[in-house]
Design goal:
Strand content: under 5%
Low-confidence stretches: none
Largest sheet: none
Mean pLDDT: 85
Structural class: mainly alpha
Radius of gyration: 21 Å
Oligomer: single chain
């Protein structure tokens, strides 16, 4: 039997823990969608709402489906993390795909955050240096920071999953 490298142990447990937290969030999301119905939007306010917020409102219309999708992703994370700890070769590409999806989600959410902050920006009659502009640029800066900080872990995971140590640990002894 192969000795399991520390990187395999860390990655496997990371996916099990994050998958479990994702499942917990999905369960709470389902509970919230069943207990609290979404209010109907005011049609007169919709036309004046910035595009990012209309998009977010559209996502809330499908909140239950998103929570169920989150539960499915959580199950895949936990199952493949456990299989990775057992040195099952199929788990490595599954974890790599999940890492790529996490990176894409992080980049997409960060860009959405910046877009939303820019959309909130200044009111049409506000002076160029008013409080709305400062508020907007603080949130834009936070969005960029969010992208930079949260993109690092999936990139490191992808590198480790593609690395020689992990590949050799998951290669069957007979190969």
């Amino acid at each position: 039997m192969n000795q399991r490298p520390t990187s395999v142990t860390v990655i496997g447990w990371l996916f099990i823990i994050v998958g479990s937290l994702t499942a917990l969030g999905g369960v709470f999301g389902l509970a919230m969608s069943l207990v609290f119905p979404m209010p109907a939007p005011d049609p007169s306010a919709v036309s004046q709402t910035p595009a990012p917020f209309r998009l977010m409102a559209g996502l809330f219309d499908h909140f239950m489906a998103l929570a169920i999708g989150q539960l499915v992703v959580a199950a895949v994370m936990v199952t493949s993390g456990r299989a990775f700890l057992q040195l099952r070769p199929w788990a490595r590409p599954v974890l790599e795909v999940l890492s790529w999806l996490g990176l894409i989600y992080t980049l997409g959410f960060g860009c959405f955050w910046v877009w939303g902050a820019l959309a909130m920006g200044r009111t049409p009659g506000e002076a160029a240096g008013g409080p709305g502009a400062a508020f907007m640029w603080v949130f834009v800066g936070f969005g960029v920071l969010l992208i930079l900080l949260f993109a690092v872990p999936p990139i490191l995971l992808i590198r480790a999953l593609r690395g020689r140590t992990v590949r050799e640990a998951l290669t069957p002894a007979s190969a």
